[in-house]
């Protein structure tokens, strides 16, 4: 199937294209990554725990299963939603300290680092207090702020992204409050609105990267070519400033669950085609890791309802790729402006 996303050019400005001498900035990223000498941090997996939002409640048995799955998939980090079903505080859904410590110890024993995953910064002090009360093996290694949907556009259809100094101050405040505990940010690929701080105007994503310890860039795409195009500048800037960069990959059935397109997820393609596509990305971006969104939404699920995800699918042949690229060039010439407009208007995850 020919997907529109595979024929949409990068959204970057002409100034940026001239700077890297590449319409997609891929050569620039490769050169900078090689010079930086940075190694990928190891792949990660999102673990949302609220069943109301398709998450997976995690108890001791489930934690052991998750750890085994992560080991089998070469995953070394867990972005752990510190909510869900818990008895300590029913209003917030926080797990008991004892249960949480047991679960994080299981992860640690399996060689996994665990970041506390939140959609706001209101729980930083709770994480710090928790970390001081448990053994080293049971501590969070950092905080991951998945704040992207909290930036409001002026209309329901407008993309959500940081546009003000106050938006950047959100991350500055979080980092200051977290002290020595690293804070990471989940960002969308289009956060390049210029923001002026201390007389200097730069894209929002650069200001955020300057503040935090690292980022993951949410792409919501299933094409290696498009994934590279959409994340090149963010990962280039992060790695050359000694910050980590993950590329977040959607695996859940977002077509059925929230009405997105099949090219917003690898759910239709299945795990084997996903691995094939991501290996292409890794070949060019060796210092970048992947973050899979999300555990048992499909990835790692034993639910028969997601049997589509377990089907062994075959990647496109080389001849099919050549044909699709030729077709895409023809379509782009005929209606490129319309496709770009549609792409910009859609709501990324």
Task: List the defining traits of the structure above.
about 40% helix; TIM Barrel; two-stranded antiparallel sheet; disordered N terminus
Give a brief description.
The chain is an alpha/beta fold and 349 residues long. The protein has a single domain (13-317), classed as Enolase-like C-terminal domain (TIM Barrel).
Overview of the molecule:
- The protein has helices at 14-20, 26-36, 60-73, 97-109, 124-133, 165-178, 204-211, 224-240, 254-258, 271-284, 307-310, 318-345, and strands spanning 43-47, 75-81, 113-118, 142-145, 183-188, 194-197, 200-203, 214-218, 244-250, 289-293.
- With 349 residues, the chain is an alpha/beta fold.
- The strands form two sheets. Strands 1-2-3-4-5-8-9-10 form an eight-stranded parallel barrel, surrounded by five helices.
- Helix 6 links the parallel strand 4 (142-145) and strand 5 (183-188).
- It is globular.
- The two termini are 22 Å apart.
Any chance you could write out the topology, listing elements then pairs?
Layout: H1 14-20, H2 26-36, E1 43-47, H3 60-73, E2 75-81, H4 97-109, E3 113-118, H5 124-133, E4 142-145, H6 165-178, E5 183-188, E6 194-197, E7 200-203, H7 204-211, E8 214-218, H8 224-240, E9 244-250, H9 254-258, H10 271-284, E10 289-293, H11 307-310, H12 318-345
Parallel strand pairs: 1-2, 1-10, 2-3, 3-4, 4-5, 5-8, 8-9, 9-10
Antiparallel strand pairs: 6-7
Helix pairs in contact: 2-8, 3-4, 6-7, 8-10
């Amino acid at each position: 199937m020919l997907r529109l996303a595979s024929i949409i050019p990068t959204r970057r400005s002409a100034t940026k294209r001239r700077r890297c001498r590449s319409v997609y900035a891929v050569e620039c990223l490769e050169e900078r990554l090689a010079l930086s000498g940075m190694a990928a941090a190891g792949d990660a997996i999102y673990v949302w725990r609220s069943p109301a939002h398709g998450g997976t409640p995690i108890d001791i048995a489930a934690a052991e299963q998750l750890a085994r799955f992560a080991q089998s998939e070469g995953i070394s980090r867990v972005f752990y939603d510190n909510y869900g079903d818990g008895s300590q505080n029913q209003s917030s859904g926080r797990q008991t300290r004892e249960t949480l410590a047991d679960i994080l110890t299981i992860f640690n024993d399996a060689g996994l680092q665990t970041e506390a995953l939140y959609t706001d910064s209101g729980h930083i002090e709770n994480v710090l207090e928790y970390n001081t009360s448990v053994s080293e093996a049971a501590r969070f290694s950092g905080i991951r702020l998945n704040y992207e949907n909290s930036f409001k556009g002026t209309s329901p259809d407008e993309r959500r992204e940081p546009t003000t100094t106050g938006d950047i101050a959100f991350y500055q405040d979080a980092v200051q409050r977290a002290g020595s505990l690293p804070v990471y940010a989940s960002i969308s690929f289009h956060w390049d609105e210029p923001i002026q701080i201390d007389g200097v105007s730069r894209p929002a994503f650069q200001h955020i990267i300057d503040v935090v310890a690292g980022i993951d860039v949410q792409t919501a795409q299933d094409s290696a070519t498009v994934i590279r195009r959409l994340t090149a500048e963010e990962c280039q800037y992060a790695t050359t400033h000694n910050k980590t960069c993950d590329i977040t990959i959607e695996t859940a059935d977002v077509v059925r669950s929230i009405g997105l397109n099949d090219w917003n997820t690898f759910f239709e393609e299945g795990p084997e085609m996903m691995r094939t596509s991501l290996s292409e990305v890794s070949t060019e971006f060796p210092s970048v890791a992947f973050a899979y969104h999300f555990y048992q939404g499909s990835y790692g699920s034993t639910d028969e309802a997601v049997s589509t995800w377990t089907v062994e699918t075959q990647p496109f042949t080389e001849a099919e790729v050549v044909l699709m690229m030729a077709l895409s060039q023809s379509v782009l010439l005929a209606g490129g402006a319309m496709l770009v407009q549609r792409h910009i208007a859609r709501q990324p995850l």
